[in-house]
Every structure is written in C-alpha cells, then in structure tokens.
Amino acid sequence: QKEVEQDPGPLSVPEGAIVSLNCTYSNSAFQYFMWYRQYSRKGPELLMYTYSSGNKEDGRFTAQVDKSSKYISLFIRDSQPSDSATYLCAMSPGGGATNKLIFGTGTLLAVQP
Amino acid sequence: DAGITQSPRHKVTETGTPVTLRCHQTENHRYMYWYRQDPGHGLRLIHYSYGVKDTDKGEVSDGYSVSRSKTEDFLLTLESATSSQTSVYFCATEGVAGSPLHFGNGTRLTVT
Fold it and tell me: Which of A24, A33, A89, A101 should one mutate to test binding to chain B, selecting the residue with the greatest count of B CBs within 10 A?
C-alpha cells in the first residue's frame, strides 16, 4: 500500500462547478500538507500549504485536512477552464524534512467551457 | 518562478550510454532536489543537495549520481542509461529548509 493515495481521474466538470480533489494517507507522522498544480509539460507549482488539521482558504481554493481520518481535500469553487491541470497532493512530517516529502500520483482535472 | 532552468528539455539516448542533466538556478537557494515523475508513481526523489559538495540519496537513487560544485548548478548523471530510466526529470530548489519547493519545467528523457 502506498503512503499516499490519490485518485488519478480524469475528472471532467463544466465551468462554474465546485471541484473536490482528495488524498488519503497512512503515515500519522505527516504534519505538513500541500497541493501543487501542474500544467501540461510544466513543473508543479505550489497552490496551497497547510499545517496540521483544519481549513485554509485562498480565493477560490480551500484546503482541508482531517488528521483523524488521514484525509485531505482541495476544493475549487467556480471552476474555470484555466484550472484544467493535474493536481498533486504532497505531505511531510515537517521539521524541514523536505527529503521526506511524499507526493500523490496526481488527479487530472478538465474544466469544460 | 524561482529562475530554474533545466537542460536539455528533451533527450533521446541509447541503452548503456552516460547521460547528464543540468539544473541551473538564479535564486541562490541552498537546497536542490532531483525528482523523476512516472505514471502511477508520482514524483519520487532521486538525490538532493543541502549545499555545495553536500549531497545525499533519495528514494530511487540506484543508477544515478549527482554533483554540485557551485550553488547555482546541480547535475544529475545516469552512469549507464537503461530503459527503466525513461522518465520526466524535475529539478526543484528550496530557499530555507521546510519552505515550499520551486520546480523547473522538466527534462523528458527517453532511453531506447
């Protein structure tokens, strides 16, 4: 079993829809949780960064962490065609341990105009 | 964008040949990382560096070596390329330990 599981999709939604992307994990030591967005033929770019449990909002994006269930989510409101990309979750135990950062396999999202 | 340039962007090589990929950054970031990205596996860490001449192995380091003689350059070498090393390789930098990673746009390597 992988430490981090992510549904690969593809997920296709109409413009304006609310999108929910999810990851589950097995390592209870993870404290830092990230979402990266990766456009085709480009490198990943950081979208959201959260510590421990709770919610964090940034514009149309909300990151949610439930450590008791070992489950994290990214919600995108009013989705736009420009949101079409692969979304990668990532998590680490923290303490500057970027070498222990584990990525999910990514979910491919397509927002149809 | 942290000013990361990867070269070459694409390369096709034959099995058994050595290959070197270059990562150049202009942000004076201390930490640098090499990842490979494969379908079904996500990003996996190959090697990383926490300063000039200081490097360490990641999860999938077999068959790879790295060197960092200057802050701005981090080289990844495939000693004798194999078909299993066909992948997209990403370099990333980190200014301060634990801060978000900045990625380059990748090198697509095909080993025939």
Answer: A101
Beta bridge partners of B36: B44, B89
Q: How confident is the model at residue A1 (pLDDT cuts 50, 70, 90)?
A: confident
Instruction: Output phi, psi for B83, to 5 deg.
Output: -60, -30
B61, B49 in Cβ contact below 8 A?
A: no
B4 to chain A, any CB pair closer than 8 A? The answer is: yes
Which residue in A41, A42, A98 is closest to B98 by CB distance? A98
DSSP state of A98: G
More confident residue, A96 or B45: B45
CB A19 within 8 A of CB A1: no
Please give the C-alpha separations between residue B80 and each of A14, B6, B77, B111, in angstroms, as whole numbers. 47, 20, 9, 10
Say yes or no to pLDDT of B2 above 70: no
